[in-house]
Amino acid sequence: MDKVSPDCPYPGCFFCVMKEGNPSKRRASILKFFRELPSQDDDGQVLPISGLWNTAMAHPNDPEFIELGIFECMVALIWKGLKNRRWLSHDQNIYIPYYAAHIIGSYTMNMEEFAESAIHAGVTPPLVELLRGRLTWVEQRVAVRALGHLATYTNTFPAVASHSEILELAIQLAMSSLEIVYSHFYQYADRRLSYHCDLLTRGMGGVEMESRKAEEWASQLQCWSLQLINCFAFKPEFLPTICKPEFLVKLPGMWGGLVNENSPAGIGLLRTICHHKLGRGPVASCPGIIEALCNIARSSDDWQYMAIDCLLWLIQDPSTCHKVIDKAVPALVDLAEITNLGDHKKLGDYIVNVLQECLQSQGTGRNTISNHVKELIEELLNSKQRLKWEKSMPKEDLHIKQAAALVVKLEGNSLFSSGNIAGAASKYSEALSLCPMRSKKERVVLYSNRAQCHLLLQQPLAAISDATRALCLHSPLNRHAKSLWRRAQAYDMLDLAKESLLDAILFINECSQSNDPDLSLRQNKVPDYAERLVKKQMRAAWLFREAAIKHGGVHGEGDAGDIYGQESDGSEWETASESDIGNDGRAEMGDDDDDDSEWKNEDKRKDKYDKVTLKGKI
Q: Mind telling me which residue stretches traverse the membrane in this protein (predicted)?
């Protein structure tokens, strides 16, 4: 290939080829370049590969390079790196297998016809070798990404599935990825491979940035492994391989972290598994999963609906209902006031219908419903019947009920202020029984106030239940600041760090937008009590925590700050009963009285709401 630019010292330079003005000559030169590159041993080969990498990311739907043989070229380069370690260690060739696999993944993530071309070019076998760990975790990350894209399409999935080891490798990688990255890279900064550091930071950062990016890449390695497994989970014949207890029990804890919040991760795979009858049995029989699903279903996480779907499918399946009903029903009852959640319209009504059918189908033997569950469902059905009755009531009668509820609520506030917490909780319950069902704003306040009472009475489960009901009633959904904070504290009492962290961050977000002077962040300052809880839970929910404990990086709770960052001060975090509720640190109820405008004008509400992402605030 003749060089084009007289200033370029490299014959056949890719960048010079790309400047060729004649389209037919340009295509011919690119075709020749792709064919000859794998057989060349010249220095500087990484430069055109990195250029192709940039092009693939910027224009993944452009067919030109696909037609000219880029997949065949990348396949040959990966094989060369796997088979010729001398070449791999020369110059900067160590980067080439990573870039080659990344290019394959970028060109196959959107276009099925490109994926078909990649399969015909033979990309699967070398990607599988990278997935095995023949090189390092960095290459595993881009290999599992590319295989996940290939497995997404109907026409290319069989080619991926024909390699029987891929599923097993992906499962092992999903379970071990965080430990691999921690022990092979994060733990010892002075032992990090230089090309790993360069790839992570593009030469723009030091040790601290490398560590942050390593956490992000480790999360991606795990989440992309789960995405690949999810493609197999849609096929019932692969469920026996996937639904092994040692793997299922870990799925709820695979959540992507704050660095990868856009991935459904473990809960997304659980939803796919629960969609099949063959998958529901193992899930229902696996200890701990149902409790985790209930926590996610109650959460304000973006993937809340996935956990709700799982619980509903498990309840509706006669073969699994008896295994999950005692734990699933309380969570679903708490969620019955949800109107719409994402694409799920009238979700609360659907939950009520499912629970009603469950109650009506109760029988003997293993399908028997416990008295507690029966009472919960009947109470829910009675509340829905009460709503129907209230629609036919005269307005004067409703106003009387509203006034009576307000009086009882104020009595509860007075008891709370005097220290009679149990008495206050009882009054809030009485007010709820009087308060009209359609007066949602006031019911939000009553549930939230009762949740605070449960906190002070050391009843975190009851506090979570009431705070969740308040958040479901609130408009917009899951955005009542004080309920978020109270539930965050309740989760903290139960050592549920991830759930507490998400609620605490959303609480801070809501405070930043609130017009309430008790909640608004003056001068954009995060409340000290919220900052302390977020710091604590970020350490406890740190993606590498389990791996760090195993490898000696963390020996216990007291050592957590040594690896994730020290506290800004040396103070201990208060117990939930002592934590701050208002901006001055006192647990108080009177600050909710500004919501009494519900009685005067139920229609005066703010309709606009701009969601702030968790990642943005952190």
A: none
